[in-house]
Design brief:
The protein has helices at 18-28, 36-55, 62-69, 88-99, 108-129, 140-144, 146-165, 170-196, 204-229, 234-261, 264-267, 273-276, 282-290, 293-307, 316-328, 331-350, 357-372; strands spanning 133-134, 137-138. The chain has one domain (12-372): Orthogonal Bundle (Farnesyl Diphosphate Synthase), CATH 1.10.600. The two termini are 26 Å apart. A two-stranded antiparallel ribbon has the order 1-2. Strand 1 (133-134) and strand 2 form a beta hairpin. By secondary structure, the protein is mostly helical. It comes from Streptomyces genisteinicus. InterPro entries: Isoprenoid_synthase_dom_sf (IPR008949), Polyprenyl_synt (IPR000092), Polyprenyl_synt_CS (IPR033749).
Length: 375
């Protein structure tokens, strides 16, 4: 893995700025021939009917709670056209099947299974993190209570495995093994994330390992599971997983930037969201590792925050000060460049897999999209 991680004493401000990195990535997405919106919509259109049918299997009131989470109904149970997320994982699963020479429909059960596991993690994460908003709406635990958030999350995970195993083929068994392994790593990553909130210092290497588990593992599964269902051998699936893993690290690096500097109107989360939760995300960890006056002042403030009894009442200005110190120490710039590094490693992996050139171009374009997204 190409990490190029920062350590104390590294002069992080020498890397391109966040805006420069975004400009470079934006240029990459302008290549003709790939309609990202159409790819995402295809993934959503093919997977949503199967996803709805799976959710319909749940006992009441879990079916209703899940429908609310997915944006299909509002809090009163009325039909809604909510934001169902970016649908990157379903799009990857369908392209994965095509990479193996199969029809995109072959990847649909894998796409739905991965989406079910992803949403299982979101339901639990929102509760553990205390997040009250997701996709511009109150989270499930806020509307329906913590118990329902836990139960529905568990049910979605069970549904994911049920959906794959009932296909009854050898390939489905292989796909299920990859999904369960990815889920275990995802849970490992969430456990690491929570434990890091209570530590004064986390290394960049530890943060990358956590984010590789929490985000990289499931994206890696998404971009291999369709190929496995389509009959691809393990070498092909493993190489596609490498693409997905590094894409996941790029994805999470961008998420970390949005978690501090993202526009709440666009992200659907509070201002300074990750700082409010004391997350040791990449910008924070890189800033603390950089050394220098801003890094040292940031370390002092975060250490005091960990012992504060009135942290929840901090003003916007106090969070803004911390964000400014992270940027001054180079954490924002380093994270933007890390997203670009991981993007490059992901795209390089595609060159080691034989696949139709149109599919390779679409996977490359999706990788570009992940790095320049705003939410």
């Amino acid at each position: 893995m190409s990490t190029s991680t920062g350590t104390r004493g590294v002069s992080v401000p020498t890397v391109p700025s966040a805006h420069q990195a975004e400009d470079t990535a934006q240029t990459a997405t302008t290549a003709p021939g790939t309609d990202i919106a159409a790819l995402l919509e295809r993934g959503r259109a093919l997977s949503t009917p199967v996803l709805r049918a799976a959710v319909d299997r749940l006992a009441a009131p879990m079916d209703t709670v899940a429908a609310y989470h997915f944006g299909w109904i509002d809090a009163e149970g009325n039909p809604a056209d909510g934001d169902g997320g970016k649908a990157v994982r379903p799009a990857l699963a369908l392209l994965s099947a095509e990479a193996a020479g199969a029809a995109p429909e072959v990847g649909v059960p894998g796409a739905v299974a991965v989406e079910l596991v992803h949403n299982f993690s979101l339901l639990h994460d929102d509760l553990m993190d205390g997040d009250e908003q997701r996709r511009h709406r109150d989270t499930v635990w806020k509307v329906h209570g913590p118990a329902q958030a836990i139960l529905v999350g568990d049910a979605l995970f069970a549904l994911a495995n049920e959906l794959l195993l009932e296909i009854g083929t050898v390939e489905a068994g292989r796909a299920t093994r990859r999904l369960t392994t990815a889920t275990r790593k995802l849970i490992d990553g969430q456990a690491q994330d929570i434990s890091y909130e209570h530590r004064e210092r986390v290394t960049v290497e530890e943060c990358l390992e956590m984010e590789g588990n929490k985000t990289g593992a499931l994206l890696a599964c998404a971009v291999s599971i369709g190929a496995v269902l389509g009959g691809a051998d393990d070498r092909t699936a493993d190489t596609l997983e490498s693409y997905g893993y590094h894409l996941g690290l790029a994805f999470q690096a961008v998420d970390d930037l949005l978690g501090i500097w993202g526009d709440p109107v666009t992200t659907g989360k509070q201002t300074w969201s990750d700082l409010r939760q004391r997350k040791k995300s990449l910008p924070v960890v890189a800033a603390l590792a950089a050394g220098g006056p801003a890094s040292e002042r940031l370390a002092e403030l975060l250490a005091a925050d960990a012992k504060s009894n009135d942290f929840d009442s901090f003003s916007e200005e106090e969070f803004a000060v911390r964000a400014a110190l992270i940027e001054e120490a180079g954490g924002r710039e380093w994270t933007a460049q890390e997203a670009r590094r991981q993007h490059a490693v992901a795209v390089e992996a595609l060159g080691r897999v034989g696949m139709p050139e149109a599919v390779r171009a679409q996977l490359t374009a999706l990788a570009d999209f992940v790095v320049v997204r705003k939410r």
